[in-house]
Each structure stands twice: as C-alpha cells, then as structure tokens.
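Protocol step 6 of 9: fold each sequence in the batch and record its structure tokens directly after the sequence line. For illustration, a two-sequence batch is reproduced in full.

Sequence one:
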Amino acid sequence: MIQFENVGLRYGLGPEVLSDLSFDVPANSFQFLTGPSGAGKTSLLRLMLMSLKPTRGVVRVFGKEASRIPRDAMPDIRRKVGVVFQDFRLLSHLTTYENVALPLKVLGKDEASYRTDVTELLKWVGLGERMHALPPVLSGGEKQRAAIARALIDQPKVLLADEPTGNVDPPMARRLLRLFIELHRSGTSVIIATHDMGLMDQYQARRLVLNEGRLQIYD
C-alpha cells in the first residue's frame, strides 16, 4: 500500500526531522506508530498522506511514486486514505451526521443509500444522541469520535490515525480500538500513531518506533 525508500525530511534549512526511512505498509496490515513527543510521528503520517513531500528518497502510495502523481489525479488517490488528525477538521456549519456523511456526499451517493450506515456508526462511537449537534457544542472527545467516524465511513484502503484515542476515556479508547481492528479485518490497512502503551498492549500488532527521526520496526 505504502512504501518508503531512503526517505529524509527537513523543514527549511533546519536539520532532518526524519532520516533514512525505508519500510513498507503491506495491504491488510495493522501497525502502531509510536515514539516520544517530537519524534516525527505526525510528519511521517503527512508523508503517507502526500500532504508533505520528502526532502530526499521515494514515497510510493498504491504503487505510484507520490512526487510523480499528476495534481488532477491526487484527489482520487487521497479518497482511498482515511485520516484522523488531532485538529479534527470538522466543518462547523454541518451537524455531526452531515460531517460524517460528507465523504459519501462528495462521491455523489444518494443519502438513502448511506443514512443507516452513518447512523449505526455514530451509535457505535457513542454519538447517537449527538448526530444533530454542531461541532461548536461538542466536547473534545465527541469531536474526536466524529472525526474517526468520518474517516471510517467509506471503508478506506488505508487509515491513518494520529492519537485517535487521546481525548477519550479508557473504556471508549478500547471501544474505538475494537472498531479499528474490525476495519482492519475487513481489508483496510491501519496505522495508529500513539504514545499510549496500554492501548498498544491490548492488541498484538507491528510497531513502528520513531526516535530522533529514525525508525525501528518490531513485528
């Protein structure tokens, strides 16, 4: 699904924040991305999403070299990638239901074809009573769960999640982890960036460990 070959990343004239990264994200795989704060986890996810370009090396996504993908082809490729970043990126004028349904609406699907799926997913993440609320009145944890539901609704080929359980209590974190595991079992490759060792210990999965910009892999 995703391949890195000798990838390095620096911002401006500063030192490299990521160095010599070479690894694959196989199809239908599950991995945790971890490491101390400032290790470069979010930057690595942004490279996978192709919202950042590497300073050196090659990033391939779905077999295509990211730097050579035509701009007009990029939206179709990115639709195969579900993403949950820490700033949520919910649209404040849309309800929780409308935010979660937005990827399907953009694809031109009729609401009748997805209404039940959106409603059931919102119930699963504990937002069944909040589906008509606007983001400004949601708590941080509720926004986090809405962002996760939106990323999952179209069953992406790859899910990138940056600290997806950082704003929820432990029982909800376990519930969300089960949701990610079920998504993986249905065929999605899942990459969860987290520093929560307790969460990682609940599921045996590959660990990508970043430290000072370099990566170690534990299968």
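Sequence two, same batch, same settings:
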Amino acid sequence: MSAAARPDQHPHDHDHEHEDEHEDEHAGHGHAHHHHADAGPRLIWALLLTLGFAAVEALAGVWSGSLALLGDAGHMVTDSASLALAAFAAWLAQRPPTQRHTYGYGRIETLAALANVLFMVLVVVAISVVAVRRMLEPAVVNGEAVTVVAALGLGLNIGVAWLLMHGEQTMNTRGALLHVLGDLLGSVAALVSGAVIMWTGWTTIDPLLSLLICALMLASSLRLLREVLQALMEGVPVTTSTEQIGRMLAGLPGVASVHDLHIWTLSSNRIALSAHLIVESLEHWPAVLAASRQALAEQGIRHVTLQPEPLHSTVRWLPAGESRRAPGN
C-alpha cells in the first residue's frame, strides 16, 4: 500500500507506509496477530473463574463471620468488572479501520487500561480505609475458615495470572493482570493472616498486611498509569529512543539528514513514525525508502510516513523581514 516517490515527484509529496495483512506476515507478525486474537478468550475465562470464586468467597465470609473474606469477595467482583471491560476492549480492538477511524480501534485497549488503573487506585483507597478501621476496631475472625478459603483463592489467582501472562502483553491485558495480581497478593495476605490468627489470635495482622499489599499495588498502578498517559499524549514509547532512530535513518546510504521526526504509539503493539528525509538524489529514493522501511521494521516500527526532500532544492524562501515586492519595484 506504499507508493515510492518518482524522481519528478514534488518534494512535498508524502510516502505512506501502512500495515496490512501481507506486510505483517512477511515481517513475522502473524504470531503477534494470533496472540492478539487470543487475548479475548483468555480474558473471558479469567472473568468467569474470578466471578465464580467471588461468589464462593462471599458465602464463606458470611458463614465464618470474616469481614476479610467478604472484603476480598467484593474486591474480586470489582476485578471481574475490570476483566469484563478488558475483554470487551480486546474484542472491539479487532474491528477493522473505518472512514471515521482510519487507525482502527486499537487505542480502545489503552483507554480500557486507563479505566482499570484508575479503578484499581479507588479499590486500593477503599481497602486502606477499611484496614485502618479494622486496626482501630478489631473484630473476631474465624482463622481456620479464612485460611482454607484463602488457600483456594491463591490457587485460583495463580491460574488466572498464568492464563493472562501467557497471552499477548498489551496495556489492556496488563491492566487486567494488575487486578488479578492484586487478588493474588490479597490471597497471600489472607492466608498468612488466617494462619497467624488461628495460632496466636492476633487479628491486627490482617489490616497490616492489607496496607502492605495496597502499597505494592499502588506502585504498580502508578507505573502502568505513566505508560498509559504517555501513549494517550502521543509520546514516544518508553522502549524507543528518538535520537537513536534519527541517527539510524540519517546514517542510511543516500540520506543526508533527517528532520521533523515524530514517533508515537497507536496501540500497545503498533508504533507510528513520520519524518522528512533529505536525500542526495531523488532518483535513489526507492532504494532509500526500502532501506528505511527495513531498518525501522527491525526496531518494531511498521506504520511509517516518510517524505523525501532533495539535498539541493530549487525552492527559495523569503528571508525574515524582507518585503514582498514585485519585480521591478
């Protein structure tokens, strides 16, 4: 779908390199598409397992009188909502581009990740408030019931985390995984607190461990939030160096210099680039274009817009301050 510039092409025409099915297959990205399509079913399975165990945990919490289990069940319900949002975003992201959304719907996964991160911050705040109240007003807890249910929850969360970690790591799935890891750590905390309460009767251990887990999850949430905001602000991906890419393009045979270089994130696995290349001769542009595409593809950048400009241009610009007088005046 790309068009190479002709020697007689106007220096301000653009060369557009767009992704398509054949380019991805030749570039070895068929596997990435398989994983992307696989993200939806993985998220749905994670949703069903998490929501099912939340019901079991809620019933166990009512039977044992454990506020910790009821709170963790509520936490898992909120996580189920985040997984549902992630699954919907993964499905929507598969829709092809339209005339109104020419880049497609990949950015919806970034928005879902943002919603999940903000949701996680609210959950952390809510759990912290409850933990502080429990420290001020300790309650009787059935340590044996908490230990058994927490052990089952730990096994389930390990399975769900494994399911998500072995799929494609988009911002969307990472946002969902963040909630699952929060559940996993919560199960560890509940397991430890249940054992301590069962053997010592010290109920304060439960809110203390809850606060520790909240601190860890808040740090992870803020790291992912920074990456999401970087993408939404059209920033350069954290794994990409603008200076390195610019030097690489400028070092290609036939390229004199590079300017107006822009790099941004379209979606989790799609990086876009546009640049103006000053070439020694427009006659050599097809070769320069092919070399540029290959070099950028090796850096994971395949949505490219390149504009060739001749080294010795006949275009003359009016110096600043000079009046635009007609010839002969």
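Proceed to step 7 once all outputs are recorded. Observation for sequence two: Residues 1-36, 314-318, 322-329 have pLDDT under 50 and may be disordered.
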